[in-house]
Amino acid sequence: MNIAVIGAGISGLSCATALQNAGHLVQVFDKSRGVSGRMSTRKGDGWQADHGAPVFEVHDSKFRAEVTRWCEAGVAARWEPRLKVLKGGVWQDGNVHVDKFVGTPAMTSPARLLASTLNVKLETTIKKLARRADDHFRWHLQSAEQGWLDAHFDVAVIAVPAPQATVLLNDIGHPFGARAKAVSMQACWALMMQFAQPIDLGWDAAVIHDSLLSWAARESAKPGRLASETWVLHASAGWSEENLERPATEIAEAMVGAFREIGGPHPLSSIAHRWRFASCEDAATLPTLWDEEHRLGICGDWLNNGGVEGAWLSGLALAQRVASGSG
To answer: Which domains does the chain have, with CATH numbers?
Structure first.
């Protein structure tokens, strides 16, 4: 079968890889300039920062096997940070019993490994789908940049955040649109901070409560990173939603202030980045959606409890359903 996968985040790449390994022809489309979705890394003059997903955990045996493959390929490594939790003004030790990993030398590296074996078309924003009766009910795609594409597909896979999936699905009147619309995705402001000197606060990463911040991490403590001192802060979902449209300069000032309240110094420079669809308030536990009649599938972290592991497993589960033809 000829299959289109819309979205080159970890779920789309997982699905595309499994489908290609099963012998199908797969074309991946993404609106961005690079693959990886929220497994993202920003780079500057002598610094880099994982401003999307900061770390991922491994629980599932299938995902563990995949992460082992990543580690053997040099694109991921175990991270054992000094982890703390700040709650009610009291510092406590965090959960260090769950295996934690990061991409190396950047969080984008695992996605780049997956994409290296796939046919990926970047900077192609798919804005419309159509299943045409005059073409044996195969799927046709329209991009914002190029109009209707020449290729047609037996199967269409949507692997984008729920609000974006809602637009595509509602446009074709598919009932999956209501499922996607019911998902509440939350924003996240991230702040990348650069410092002239190394900083030791007694911890490398912290989960933070009772603050506008929810997460802080010393990027320089991650394996395979540049020597320059870089930290990343994440604001809480609630605060991010409330301040979604504020200028980035004001966001940076507020987040730096919150960092200083927990003992951090003022940075040499900082950059704020807004993730409009960062996480799900209540991610669905169903790993995937598949319509056998219309040959349409949906995968993503918003369908599988969230996180990098959930996204990868969602893509794998959908590929297995497509390949087996199950309804």
So the answer is: 2-324 (3.90.660.10)
